[in-house]
Amino acid sequence: MTYANRPTILTGDRTTGPLHLGHYVGSLRARVQLQHEAQQFLLLADTQALTDNVGRHRKVTENVIEVALDYLAVGIDPEKSTILIQSQVPELAELSQYLLNLVTVARLERNPTIKEEIRLRGFERDIPAGFLTYPVSQAADITAFRATHVPVGDDQLPMIEQTNELVRRFNHTVEQPVLVECQAVLSNVTRLPGIDGKAKMSKSLGNAITLSASPDEITKAVNDMYTDPCHLRVSDPGQVEGNVVFAFLDAFEPDVDKVSELKSHYRRGGLGDSVVKRMLDERLQSLIEPIRARRRELADDRGEVVSILRRGTMRAREAAALTLSQVKGALGLSYF
Ligand code: TRP
Questions:
Q1: What predicted TM-score, i.e. pTM, was given to this entire model?
Q2: Sequence-separated (6 or more) residues with CB below 8 Å from residue 175
């Protein structure tokens, strides 16, 4: 398989739940565009999700289909992009095994994202070894497909850095340029806050709007959105910073002039929350409506979705096997 000079992109999502508007703004929207410009692999990271979901394996495996439905519903075209299931590409696990020898425990413990996740999950010193080493498995994902570009949020930058360290270390060890370094592509949209005003939209925090939200759920979420607690009367001047409704309008309303007019009106006073919320509700309804409809259609044809995943995974295996055979060859692991 040759990809000429098109960049190769790898993206991944842990399959712990269906995707939400935060994912849409942060990555999905861009991926739909990128599939025309690049060779794109979308990895359903079930193996990675298992590293901190011991005992919740059902949740992880059931959500593989949910995330795949989200991809397809927003417009990922399986003819243009390759959707694969991480656990079904054993070459990734095998490559991880070799890369694991090239990183120290001390280095793994220094990864700031891992540190933060350990803190959040309260693992203290009882860290599953697979969790501590998932950045290495992620490096295997990236290098197996010779990804040149990896679109990520800023929390994933340490993973890219660690991947490139492993690439250099591997190539230096075997004295051949077998693996390729990659480049992080940071999305230029600021992170979408949760409807409660918390910095991050997240399903586990219960502040998310999913891509399959019903019209009523959308309206309720918009009505519940945190605005400016001091904006009591319509005539009061209101604050736009930290106001979730405006953060959403920034993310979803293409008419930038209209948004900036609304903001100054709100700041001056005389613009009620309910008016702005109604506008946002309309925006989100028209955004999600076709996604929800397409998602439902696909969900009714599960066999077709499974077959898309099987084809994508097979295609991905071919690409990964090629890299793995070069890696093994360079290490001298070719006995027969
Ligand atoms: N770590 C990513 C997340 O938190 C998922 C992921 C797994 C990934 N492998 C990847 C992202 C490779 C980019 C590249 O969801």
A1: 0.94
A2: none
